[in-house]
Amino acid sequence: MQFDEIKTVAVLGAGTMGGGIAHVFARSGYDVILRDVSAEVLERALAAISANLDREIKKGKIAEADKPEIRARIHATTDAERLNEADFAVEAVPERLELKRAALSEADRVLRPGVILASNTSSISIATLAAATSRPDRFLGMHFMNPVPVMELVEVVRASQTSDATLATTMALARALGKTPVAVNDAPGFVANRVLMPMINEAAFAVMEGVATPEAVDAVMKTGMNHPMGPLELADLIGLDVCVDIMDVLEAGFPGAKLSSKYSACPLLREMVSEGRLGRKTGRGFYTYGR
Question: Which of 47, 75, 110, 236 has the fewest CB atoms within 10 Å, i.e. the most exposed one?
Answer without folding.
Answer: 47
